[in-house]
Write a structure and sequence with these properties.
Beta-Lactamase; Helix Hairpins; 3 domains; alpha+beta; disordered N terminus; PAS-like_dom_sf; Heat Shock Protein 90; histidine kinase; coiled coil; 5-stranded mixed sheet
């Protein structure tokens, strides 16, 4: 950068000529007013800026160049400035407007300074038309707003994408867990099937071999005995397979509840009669009912529940034990309970009683799939019911179902 050259005033014959040159040819509006707010001088740039002819502004109040809506405030500000004159540079952040002779408005930037001439207090105003700058600022604001909108939209889209990604991740995790559960289910099925199927299949095989040996009429009773063993084993296998099929349908949501009207006492008494063939010597099943006997539910699902609970009560109760089934029907609820005098269930085991394949720790030596109570709980849930268990080890168990209408 070249050093600043000293100001050469030799081209001007005197100071007045220099001032006149600045005043007349400046590319900024220069306006001089007295302490009454009257325009004393306006340079050509100011006159052209506001659309007035030469000398037309002289003697007019400065408010003629200000929009009328600001007149009252401006008079107050002007008087305050006259009482406490202090130079005010441009760019103090105030939005000011000038008004042309034709009434059109435009944004301006004004700086003020005071000057005392003899006994006169004068104010010199430098006026810039900042229309282009305001348009540029407005364009920048518009672009910033547009950018902010785009950023906001992009942020929203990213949030949506993240939400969808999280949902997809969650769904994938669920699918993986479901697949893992399915694989575990298959593994447990194979393990259980190999164990539970072995005994009845061995019974069927041995009984079939023995049947071939009993060929005479006198040996009919022996043939009958082995035939019954085969039938019993086949029924046992059928029950196991039915349990697996039921669990599969439940998991797939393929169990449809079909409510119909039926007599509850007739249904339960019929089940008790059917289960007499599996009762141990001396076992008794008692049944008591309170309330109306006509019920609207799915009789097939309810029968499966009762058969399972009674079968378990028979299986886990000793000979000569009494098994009690009770039912109560009101306007709002149907309550069913099955009480046995069996081996009971520990508190620890009760917490897992309705899980798939769960076997109580004291029932490992008794045949079972661990699916029955799981199916019972799911069937009850499908019919707006809940099941609970109250049990003491070696004293028996009571299962209670409450169906709400």
């Amino acid at each position: 950068m070249q050093p600043t050259q000293p100001l050469n005033l030799g081209m001007f014959s005197n100071e007045k000529q220099l001032v006149d040159a600045i005043f007349l040819h400046a590319s900024v509006g220069i306006l001089i007013t007295n302490d009454r707010g009257e325009i004393v001088l306006a340079n050509p740039f100011t006159q052209a800026l506001f659309g007035y002819d030469d000398g037309e502004l002289n003697g007019r109040k400065i408010e003629i160049l200000i929009p009328s809506r600001y007149h009252h405030k401006h008079v107050h500000h002007r008087e305050a400035f006259s009482n406490h004159m202090q130079n005010r540079p441009m760019g103090l952040g105030m939005d000011l407007y000038g008004v042309r002779k034709d009434g059109s408005e435009f944004p301006v930037e004004v700086s003020l300074c005071h000057y005392r001439n003899d006994d006169n207090n004068l104010v010199i105003a430098f006026i810039n038309n900042i229309t282009i700058r305001k348009k540029a600022e407005e364009e920048i604001r518009r672009l910033n707003d547009e950018l902010e909108d785009k950023v906001e939209q992009r942020t929203f889209e990213l949030k949506e994408t993240m939400t969808k990604l999280e949902e997809s991740t969650e769904e994938l995790a669920k699918s993986l867990n479901k697949e893992k559960e399915l694989n575990e289910l298959k593994s447990r099925f194979v393990s259980l099937a190999s164990h539970e199927f072995r005994t009845p299949l061995s019974t069927i095989l041995s009984s079939t071999i023995l049947l071939q040996k009993y060929t005479t009429t006198e040996e009919q009773s022996k043939r009958q005995k082995h035939t019954e063993r085969i039938v019993s084993s086949v029924n046992g296998l059928t029950e196991i397979l039915n349990d697996f099929l039921s669990v599969g349908k439940i998991e797939e949501g393929k169990i449809a509840v079909k409510p119909t009207t039926f007599t509850i006492t007739r249904l339960i008494n019929g089940i008790i009669e059917e289960l007499k063939t599996i009762q141990k010597p001396g076992q008794q099943i008692t049944y008591a009912h309170e309330g109306a006997e006509t019920l609207v539910m799915d009789p097939t699902l309810l029968k499966h529940i009762v058969v399972n609970l009674l079968s378990n009560a028979i299986k886990f109760s000793p000979e000569n034990a009494t098994i009690a089934i009770n039912s109560t029907l009101t306007d709002k609820q149907f309550i069913l309970s099955v009480q046995d005098q069996g081996i009971g269930i520990s508190k620890e085991d009760q917490a897992h009683l309705f899980e798939r394949f769960f076997r109580a720790s004291n029932a490992s030596n008794i045949d079972g799939t661990g699916l029955g109570l799981h199916i019972v709980a799911k069937y009850a849930e499908l019919m707006n019911g809940v099941i609970s268990c109250n049990s003491i080890v070696d004293h028996g168990t009571t299962f209670t179902l409450v169906f709400t209408f």
